[in-house]
């Protein structure tokens, strides 16, 4: 089930005693991860932005995320950041994470994020709808890369704009889906449901906007803004303000 939408990958419910697995740490592993699994070692970088990186306290295991080499419940928590959009079988990939850990964090580009910063290595586009992760193959919905604003939205604004950081943290799932879960979550792969297809293939009207981005009252907006501001200050003090994948 869904726990919440964290404001960033550094806003996770991780206890100090947790043994943490990360699937697909790539060139930017989460500092809290104890064990890193990656399908590609060395300099095979088609699916990542740089060479594989492993921090000193982390153990590396080369393995396929669709068949993890661990017993059931080997970990307390599993992290998966910007990997799901690459894999062949997202449902199988996530079921392995549900098997080896009872809770975890998933981060993947949203449909909006993929249009703004498209990547040829990304097979899938995703949205959170009704607390489910809904995924379509780009080919199935006729996704077309028109213009790449990746440098602006992935690098320039995160480095130079505090208001942009605040927008990211107050509007859940705007450019990336940030989803913390427990036990398991529902993932819909290429659903034929007309309502879901409409969200992914037609111009958005107010009904779609309100379905994907739930309206909050004034009190909820204020609480969210204060929380996001505190999170930004916390990251700033840890010198992580300008880190974004």
From TrEMBL:
GO molecular function, one term: S-adenosylmethionine-dependent methyltransferase activity
SUPFAM superfamilies in alphabetical order: S-adenosyl-L-methionine-dependent methyltransferases (SSF53335)
Protein name from the UniProt record: Methyltransferase domain-containing protein
GO biological process entries: methylation
Pfam family, one: Methyltransf_11
Keyword line: Methyltransferase, Transferase
Methyltransferase type domain sequence ranges: 55-103
